Inverse folding.
């Protein structure tokens, strides 16, 4: 539970309140699990999980929990072994960790999100267990929420970027400190491509390319996107470049200390920024960044040798050149994800098949890589991969994968639309209700 466990005890008369009859509450074999939460938490972060759950200790303040299957627990413990190092980096950057414990719960595959930042116990999709510790990036994001999102929370969903933009920035600082500048640059590059793609997605409704949005009468799940994450990150990165990292680090610590355990809005943040960084509004157009549509002209793609090399290789693919085995020898999931994300949207089916024959991307254990490849395969109408698409849509319920695969199918020919409808009708009951409604919305727009 996202609270401290106090004790397990026998039920007492008077405990039940109005929950149920006293005789049922105190029946033989019943036990009471008592939890306490001393810190005030955002109202959307009250969470508990029920099941036959086992655990593994991975650090002085971290256990990994999952269904009591030794193989899953062992894999999760190995993937997240570096969690304590990340907590220490976070504390150095943003101030003390105020929640005492940082436990991780790996949920079944139907969990619709990558992670959910419940205080004390983060909920995670099993797709983050990749076998090479790179899944720890999602943990870094949820850990960063311990300061930006849990400690300081957006007042309403119109100000969602205050949670996610700050957390994406904080996550990348943690990743840079633990895994190095190159990996951080890859993450920024993948995020930049995602932001550019979202501009295309919202071209007919640019309201949702703003940081400060108006979501009155709108289902947040319908307009959920990378914009608050990546445009928010870009805004904070822009401020960092303007005033320098040491000054920005001091500003962040001051900001977190000033507003901890409070819910705030964009105006509050901007007032605090202008007070603590005098003259910043003369250097950066704060209104364009927060209330303007699209990507501001002073946003920036990352600059690094590895990022430039991968994007360059992706651009050569259209001319028929695929990367050599020597060029990809040291690539892991993030390098392949960046490469695939930057390939042309549609290429010859024979090129897609040749790429997979050489590098087996459709068989990747990393869903980021597999789904990026399958999107390419659908766009190129490589029907020999549709059985892999179907298997993927039936084995995971994470919306990050469902959304692009179903969208790619319904934007294709009639055959693919019928295929998408059939797969959804067969997989629907295995999805979380939020994921069900998102997929239904995608299908209804195109069918």
């Amino acid at each position: 539970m996202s609270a401290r466990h106090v004790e397990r005890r026998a039920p007492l008369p008077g405990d039940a309140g109005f929950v149920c009859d006293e005789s049922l509450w105190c029946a033989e074999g019943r036990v009471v699990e008592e939890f306490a939460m001393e810190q005030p938490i955002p109202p959307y972060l009250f969470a508990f999980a029920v099941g036959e759950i086992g655990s593994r200790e991975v650090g002085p303040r971290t256990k990994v929990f999952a269904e009591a299957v030794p193989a899953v627990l062992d894999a999760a413990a190995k993937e997240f072994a570096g969690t304590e190092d990340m907590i220490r980096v976070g504390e150095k950057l943003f101030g003390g960790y105020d929640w005492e414990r940082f436990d991780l719960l790996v949920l079944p595959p139907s969990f619709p999100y990558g992670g959910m930042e419940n205080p004390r116990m983060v909920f995670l999709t099993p797709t983050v267990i990749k076998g090479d510790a790179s899944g720890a990036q999602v943990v870094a994001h949820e850990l960063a929420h311990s300061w930006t999102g849990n400690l300081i929370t957006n007042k309403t969903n119109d100000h969602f970027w205050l949670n996610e933009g700050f957390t994406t920035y904080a996550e990348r600082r943690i990743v840079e400190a633990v895994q190095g500048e190159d990996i951080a640059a890859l993450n920024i590059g993948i995020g930049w491509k995602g932001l550019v793609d979202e501009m295309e997605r919202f071209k007919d409704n640019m309201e949702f390319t703003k940081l400060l949005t108006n979501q009155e009468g709108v289902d947040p799940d319908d307009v959920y996107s990378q914009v608050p994450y990546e445009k928010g990150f870009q805004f904070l990165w822009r401020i960092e470049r303007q005033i320098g990292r040491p000054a920005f680090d001091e500003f962040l610590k001051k900001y977190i200390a000033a507003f901890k355990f409070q819910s705030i809005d964009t105006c509050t943040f901007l007032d605090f920024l202008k007070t603590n960084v005098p003259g910043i509004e003369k250097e950066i157009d704060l209104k364009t960044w927060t209330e303007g549509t699209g990507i501001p002209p002073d946003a920036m793609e990352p600059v690094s040798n590895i990022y430039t090399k991968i994007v360059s290789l992706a651009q050569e693919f259209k001319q028929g050149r695929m990367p050599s085995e020597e060029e990809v020898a040291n690539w892991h999931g993030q390098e392949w994800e960046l490469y695939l994300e930057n390939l042309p949207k549609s290429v010859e089916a024979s090129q897609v098949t040749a790429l997979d024959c050489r590098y087996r991307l459709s068989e990747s254990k990393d869903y980021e890589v597999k789904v990026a490849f399958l999107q390419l395969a659908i766009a190129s109408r490589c029907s020999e991969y549709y059985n892999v698409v179907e298997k993927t849509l039936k084995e995971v319920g994470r919306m990050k994968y469902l959304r692009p695969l179903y969208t790619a199918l319904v934007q294709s020919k009639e055959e693919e639309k019928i295929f998408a409808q059939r797969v959804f009708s067969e997989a629907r009951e295995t999805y979380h209700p939020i994921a069900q409604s998102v997929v239904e919305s995608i299908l209804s727009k195109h069918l």
About this structure: The beta strands are 4-9, 32-36, 53-59, 62-67, 103-106, 115-116, 121-124, 152-154, 262-264.
